[in-house]
TrEMBL record:
This is Leucyl aminopeptidase family protein. Keywords: Aminopeptidase, Hydrolase, Manganese, Protease. It comes from Paracoccus onubensis. GO terms for molecular function: manganese ion binding; metalloaminopeptidase activity. InterPro entries: Leucine_aapep/pepB, Macro_dom-like, Peptidase_M17_C, Peptidase_M17_N_1.
Length: 458
């Protein structure tokens, strides 16, 4: 869906943003109307201001108590669904509130997934505040909308073939090259884990490989593209399978991030590579089995102790391929473990990184971008948990403890060769509507990395 700011115009209506119980700006008083309406500036509270002829001449919007400002991101998105369909501008903003964050919240609040339900009603537009880079915010929102659309589309219309088509369209739009290795060609190209996980599905497994730029530091992004996950022969219960259209959330996020990098101009200073193993983990007579020992591109053998731990298998081959070029930085995104959600909930993905300086930059950028991440350790003593008796690695250690950490340790084995490696264990789903984030697919960690890239790769 298109995303836009309103043009600068005398016809735009003012919004006065006020904190709770603060004095209302004199030019927004409209007599005693706000007091008569009970407006106090509570979080998300809206008061439309009438003109003498009965039309709307402006609005007051509540930012809540300053001490609780950190409780809610993108608060101005609340106004998008409440204001009349007009063009609006920020007339006042209390000190300490970031106009860029508010404007991005407004843009994100315009999102609606309409593929199966007709067009969404037109939304009010905002004039981009002075001093805010409108083009950058529009590029960020467009990348986020791509990620959401891809995740929200069910597997009936977003299998490996359709994910490839979406990647091809994006590559064409931004002038990138793309190569795709499909089906039995995966074995010839020494990508056996991707083939093993996806071979039972109706749509053939594939590796999508996108490149953009030919000079500068190299950034490689790897995104898990499991378009639907039944759990394989270790089949999931219905309660766990219902959201598995989102198991390609890592792929959707790296494509959204690629769109942001290209749209903001950051890609012009980099060599970018995006690798997406796109598969469906299905059940059939040729599905890979519990107890199988599989070979990998790296030469390490993997004992399959649970076919529902398939994401780390397809990522392993893609990470190995990415590391062979020795990129300056390689980042993987994956909806990998429920353990991450138990530890940190749906809003805060953990990230793993051995390099303290890199981790600090990412943590700072995550806070600045309103895209929270939390560092977790590659805990060396747990390495023995992923080392079984009959193979080099175990894809699903027993015991159920430290599941996100052991998954990250597994992936790190295949990322050797990259200058620095970062892994994000994302959820990719908004379980309940929040400002700027309707229930459904959501990008996580893309805006944080976008903000960090200039400092990570200079």
């Amino acid at each position: 869906m298109p995303v836009e700011f309103a043009p600068i115009s005398d016809q735009s209506l003012p919004i006065w943003c006020v904190t709770q119980d603060a004095e209302i700006p004199e030019d927004a008083m409209a007599g005693n109307w706000p007091a008569a309406c009970g407006f106090t500036g509570k979080t998300g509270e809206l008061c439309l201001l009438p003109a003498p002829d009965g039309s709307v001449q402006g609005a007051l919007f509540g930012l809540g108590q300053p001490a609780r400002a950190g409780r809610e991101r993108f608060i101005l998105a609340r106004a998008v669904s409440a204001l009349p369909q007009r063009d609006w501008r920020l007339a006042s903003l209390p000190e300490g509130h970031d106009p860029e964050e508010l404007a991005l919240g407004w843009l994100l609040g315009q999102y609606r997934f309409t593929r199966y339900k007709g067009d969404a009603p037109a939304r009010p537009r905002l004039v981009c505040p002075d001093g805010v880079d409108a083009d950058r915010l529009l590029a960020i929102a467009a990348g986020e909308f791509l990620t959401r659309d891809l995740i929200n589309t069910p597997a009936s219309d977003m299998g490996p073939k359709q994910l490839e088509a979406s990647a091809r369209k994006l590559a064409n739009d931004i002038g990138a090259s793309i190569e795709v290795t499909t089906g039995e060609a995966l074995l010839k190209s020494n990508l056996p884990l991707i083939h093993a996980v996806g071979r039972a599905a109706e749509q053939a497994p594939r590796l999508i490989d996108i490149r953009l730029g030919d000079s500068g530091p190299m950034l490689t992004l790897v995104g898990k593209g499991v378009c639907f996950d039944t759990g394989g022969l270790d089949i999931k219960p219905p309660s766990s399978m219902g959201l598995m259209k989102k198991d390609m959330g890592g792929a959707a996020t790296v494509l959204g991030l690629l769109k942001m990098l290209a749209g903001t101009g950051a890609a012009q200073r980099l060599r970018l590579r995006v690798l997406i193993p796109a598969v469906e983990n299905s059940i059939a007579g040729n599905a890979f089995r519990p107890g199988d020992v599989l070979g990998s591109r790296k030469g390490l053998t993997v004992e399959v102790n649970n076919t529902d731990a398939e994401g780390r298998l397809v990522l392993a081959d893609a990470l190995t391929m990415g590391a062979e070029e020795n990129p300056d930085l390689m980042i993987s995104y994956a909806t990998l473990t429920g353990a991450a959600r138990v530890a940190l909930g749906p809003d805060i993905p953990p990230f793993y990184c051995d390099d303290d300086a890199t981790a600090q930059i990412i943590q700072t950028s995550a806070m600045q971008a309103g895209d929270p991440l939390w560092r977790m350790p590659f805990w060396e003593p747990y390495e023995t948990m992923i080392e079984p008796d009959i193979a080099d690695l175990d894809n699903a250690p027993s015991g159920g403890m430290a599941g996100s950490i052991t998954a990250a340790l597994f992936l790190r084995r295949f990322a050797e060769g990259a200058g620095r490696y970062v892994h994000l264990d994302i959820y990719g789903w908004q379980p309940a509507a929040k400002p700027g984030r309707p229930k459904g697919g959501v990008g996580q960690g893309a805006r944080a990395i976008l903000d960090a890239v200039p400092r990570l790769l200079t």
